[in-house]
Amino acid sequence: xxxxxxxxxSMFNFWATQTQSKSIEEQNYFQSDSxxxxxxxxxxxxxxxxWRDFHNYWIxxxxxxxxxxxxxxxxNDPKATLTKIF
Length: 86
What we know:
Layout: H1 4-17, H2 27-30, H3 37-60, H4 71-76, H5 78-85
Helix pairs in contact: 1-3
């Protein structure tokens, strides 16, 4: 799993720039006078709900063994994280 705040920020940046290689300045995300503010607010609500529902679905499954790991652990220490997975 990945931190939901990182997911939302990444998705918003992708939505706003329509690329994976450009970035809008972070200050634009949160300024109350930003024309993007209403879209940011809507995206946060929508995506945090989707993130929660997705993870709850897997947490509640009893018929399949599930191993959760954090994306940040995988990127920070891939060998240790993958060793635990396997």
